[in-house]
Amino acid sequence: MFRFLFFAACAACFGTAATAQPVSTEEEERALSQIYGGEEMVSIASGYKQPISQAPSIATVVTAADIKAIGATDIDEVLETVPGLHVQRNTIGYNPIYTFRGIFSQFNQQVLMMVNGIPITNSYTGSRSEVWGGMPIRDIARIEVVRGPGSAVYGADAFAGVINVITKTRRDIDGSEIGGRVGSFDSYDGWALHGAEWAGFDVALAVEYHNTAGQNAVVDADLQSQFDRLFGTSASLAPGPLSLSRENLDARIDLARGHWRFRGGLQHRGNFGVGSGVAQALDSTARYGSDRWNADITYQNTDIENWEWTSQASYFETSQEIERNLTLFPPGSTLPIGANGQIGAGAPVTFPNGYIGNPEVWERHVRVSQMLAYSGFRRHQIRSGIGFNYDSLFQARVSQNFGIDPGSGLPIPSLPGIPLIDVSGTASTFIPEVDRKIAYLFFQDQWNFANDWTLTAGARYDRYSDFGNTFNPRAALIWEAGYDLTAKLMYGSAFRAPSFQEMYILNNPAQIGNPQLKPETMENLELGFDYRPADGLRFGLNFFGYWWKDIIRFVPDSNATTATAQNRGAQQGYGGEFEAEWQAADSLKLVGNYAYQRSRDETLHHDAGYGPQHQLYLRMNWQFLPDWSFSPQAKWIVGRSRSFGDSREPVADYTWVDLTLRRQNLAKHVELAFSVRNLFDVSAREPSLAGSPQPGIPNDLPLAPRSFYGEISVNF
């Protein structure tokens, strides 16, 4: 009903829209590119388009042409090319952990990801959902990435970094495209894009389908292996393969007319394998599912002299559903069960069908905002705005064969046959239905106070219904030292809102929520340089330091086997990033970057661990014949220390090489490409979580072996 009402309201708005001249952000960008010599524009840093060198942040833009050169099949392969960003893996579904500058957490809540400027955050975990399943790339026009905090502009979770995915409009597609891809691990992809004018509307449509059995690297041992040693059983499925099957469907529509733009979309995820297991125990049968619906309508008017007025309303609905039982520990497992019917201090109980828990959640997010910008002052450009967000976990369901049976009051494992019982809406459930209301306002001034000097300063105030207020300022001093050199000195603060899971989770065998949590906070200081000594040659260099406070951690409870969420951590980090881009000839482009970071857990006086201390990336785009291009790329991941209490050796370094060969304009309309991932078939791994007394998966998380992909697309 909510979806129907929102789409109906959008249709009504379009029905009454004036037929004024359409807003053409593409034409605006082309004009700016001519002024600034083809330099990439970025809007995520300040809310309006400006050259990267003058943006009040350290930003990266990856275009559709870059994505094609990389030969990427998923957004993660694109983001891995960004300086200072490393894509690690969560044990649950192998979901990506976008680690910026050594800032790591299991659910990656410290990174804000947006699609067309609208967050796609799941409030339950504070992440992109446990049923993420990747994001296809054919409908992506560009990706803008800011390293460092952005809460003064975007509010919560714009903490370690901000990622904004901008989808294609009619002008980006300009016609029709159909294509397909086949590859290793029984992977099949298909897509269709169409852009045209219809009945006075600019229309863009995109449908992308992905089906795979998933890479099947072997996990040597898991958490169940430890219970097997303790109780003399053999229930563990390790050594055994990962469970990474996927069936994805992504569909989007973009309509523009006059000052209005409407976007809508669906991301369906099904047959979603759980990676190395929800409880770090292999589970070959469990499957997640999810439907993510989004719709937004925007009115933007720049016709009034010196004024820009933007109003927006958006709706986002997301779910975490169980298609097949989540078997946290496999059939035949013997586990110590306490008086509360959950794992803890108690007698051993054997679960013939496995230890099963099926938590499901449904959320909706409604956002409205109003922004005004004024550029009539001689030296100032002012932006201000207000907004309101409503986040609701409106339904939660769970069935399980552990805990307390709400009907009898007895531990479920003591009942005959250890049945699977639906405890939704009872005192035995895992989370209540909760909501959160957020009101905010922001102000920003870009002040050209002297020739070649600009100060951008701003702040945002957020009022949360569940934990109170937060205020986040920022400032950036930019000096155009010469026609080819720009220097930036920047300060920013940020906050990360506690997730519903961290605040309200109940009856969990390991973790308990805390409604008294405060947000995590960060302060960040950066010095950056952008140097362009010649046409087609660019160097970037920046240094950073950050102070991360009030980190939310689950702290062990006294005389209990559970841990409760507390603001109980602090981390400091520093480092630098260097990047270079050289258009050596019309047919040859070289791209590279190097990132260094050191992060220290100030609470435990130890290296923070997990994130690589050194990252090096190189890529060559070579058009060696007309319509033929060859793009090799390599990355080196070096220096991943262990966190406090983890006695394992550091994670082994690795070198990863990919190749892409592409043939364009075959019979004028056809394009072919062939890619190899992990060319040298290296045994690369990402760190698994530390554990007590030992990690659940001791030999870390294996990445995919060598794989091959071939694709064909037709444009007409």
TrEMBL record:
It holds the Pfam family Plug. Keywords: Cell outer membrane, Membrane, Receptor, Signal, TonB box, Transmembrane, Transmembrane beta strand, Transport. Residues 53-162 form the TonB-dependent receptor plug domain. It is found in: Cell outer membrane. Its main location: membrane. PROSITE patterns: TONB_DEPENDENT_REC_3. It comes from the Bacteria. Residues 1-20 form the signal peptide. Residues 273-679 form the TonB-dependent receptor-like beta-barrel domain. It is a multi-pass membrane protein. Belongs to the TonB-dependent receptor family. Hemoglobin/haptoglobin binding protein subfamily. This is TonB-dependent receptor. It comes from Methylomonas aurea.
